[in-house]
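In the previous lecture we treated proteins in isolation. Real proteins rarely work alone, and many bind small molecules. This record shows how such a complex is specified: first the sequence, then the SMILES for fe (ii) ion.
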Amino acid sequence: MARKPGVLLLNLGSPASTDVSDVRKYLGEFLMDGRVLDAPKPIRWIVVNGFILPFRPKNSAAAYKRVWTDEGSPLIVKSEKVRELLDCEDCPTFLAMNYGEPSIDQEIEKIKKQGITDLFLMPQYPHYAMSSYETVVAKTMETLREKAPEIQTKLLQPFYQDEDYLGALETVIRPYLEKKPDLVLFSFHGIPERHLRKTDPSHAHCLESGDCCENCHPAHATCYRHQCFTTAHKTAARLGLARDQYHISFQSRLGRDPWLTPYTDKTLEELPGKGVKRLLVICPAFVTDCLETLEEISMEGKDSFLESGGEFFVQIPCLNDHPAWIDVLRNRIDSWRNQTVASATPSA
Ligand SMILES: C=CC1=C(C)c2cc3[nH]c(cc4nc(cc5[nH]c(cc1n2)c(C)c5CCC(=O)O)C(CCC(=O)O)=C4C)c(C)c3C=C
Ligand SMILES: [Fe+2]
Ligand SMILES: [Fe+2]
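The predicted 3D structure, ligand included, written as tokens:
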């Protein structure tokens, strides 16, 4: 039977609009995900509906309004551009979001209708976290099992130390070093410390000592903290940055539980007092600019750094549709296609 390959890009998703009601619907779907808020379902329901949804949607909607474009959510618009650039007739590319639209469900329907036999799943998350990579993969695999079990799949692994991804980051960051920063801050999306312990298969390694996530350990196949450190250290090495020329922090904390530290918001307030006046910030956990980079860092973070005595602040854009990143994705797709065709061709 003739094989028909296709690609499915996966990301987190945005509300349908900046209306408070749409933001509430989106946050409800997002936060009722048991891999995001991992309390038992009835408790999660009470926390989400009793304590978060009555208040947060109004503030989040205001934040989304600050970054929303005429075409829609930056995350969706930029992801769609990437999809268009990768799309081709003999290997169509689809885009689905874990929450909101385009949904995984509707895209898998489309994929099925187009007769795709082999699907390359490409989660746009460089690092493994149960609240990002794991949840989008779990939902996609469940949907495929239910709607299209006949489709063969291949899954892109977390690419936090892939030399091509690091090379693309280097290409994007390097021109900004001409601005002579005092420091480069690598700010990653945070996660609760509890999640790190849960995804440690040994249940005895991560966060057990200060440098546990810096060392080699089998637990690191699913250790978000180790993977973020690795991305930062390897990118810094490519850029020729010494250890005192860059800093690593974690942003976007939600709730009162301890999350990975140091926190980006506190770091931005403290750095000017430590003599850092000129700062570059890069957010490598996001391949696509979104609310958390464009509002939390470029607006809120910048204001806070400058108000604390900083003099120069630039947030380096995410990889988005940069040609260096599109090349990386296209190469991954091409090598998968070559392997798929080769494995489908009977040997003589
Ligand atoms: C980079 C990977 C991400 C991880 C890990 C992650 C964990 C995580 N997030 C929340 C809560 C929220 N995140 C929100 C927005 C958001 N988060 C990511 C990525 C990761 N989240 C992205 C790409 C975005 C932006 C979406 C966009 O539309 O631009 C939000 C919504 C906005 C807000 O109200 O602040 C919430 C809420 C938790 C609790 C969590 C880990 C447990
Ligand atoms: Fe998030
Ligand atoms: Fe670890």
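Summary for your notes: The pocket of fe (ii) ion (ligand 3) is lined by residues 205-206, 212-213, 219-220, 223, 225-226 (CB under 6 Å). DSSP finds 13 helices and eight strands in the chain.
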